[in-house]
Amino acid sequence: MVKARSREGQGQIDITCFFEELPLPGVGQVVPQHSAILPGYIPIGIHSNHMDMARFVSADDPGFTAVCGELRRWIKQIDTSERRHREPPASDHTGRSGDGQDGCTSSAARFLVPYTSNPDFVGRSDILELLKSQLGHGQPLTGGASQPRACLHGLGGIGKTQIALAYAFWLRETHPDVSVFWVHASSAERFRQAYGFLAQECQVPGYDDPKTDVLQLVKRWLERKDCGR
């Protein structure tokens, strides 16, 4: 169904996959992780067995916090989307839409990250500082064609996503004029869906044309120097 919607241009379905981390006594894991998750979508482990994974001890239970965090993220996305459709585009003194024909605006930078900030994240300051350095913070912009890149790698579960999130939220706080786009690239289909969502949220001209190559559309839009940082 997910692949069919993508092929038919119906837009992506936001999915979060929760899976049990503990075995059921005398039985083992009822639904192992590889069967509980969809490739390219957010996987979150619940530290409980199959029967108890939806029974939370308190509001401070990590599993309950994770579920509520995803629900809040979905609500925020829905509210943002509905507000954008309700409000008419801003116009300048010439009467033109703020988006213009090229889809670029003079409004504040966009922060499209499908996660909430983790207030419990601590440590890793050495990695964060190295990440900031490798991505060129504190250095003057050269105006060249090349852009700094960095890669976080390691075994699953060691905190790569949390480090990337800590950097993203730090960047939003310290450089509010810089846009941040979180793109899932675990599969070609998920990558295309992420670009489609980005194009829709940023109202890139042509995003609603089913014949448009959304990858090339967003790539050209991101390459425009007059569309912000």
Automatic annotation (TrEMBL):
Protein name: Uncharacterized protein
Superkingdom: Eukaryota
Listed Basic and acidic residues bias regions: 79-96
Organism expressing this protein natively: Parathielavia appendiculata
Region (Disordered): 79-103
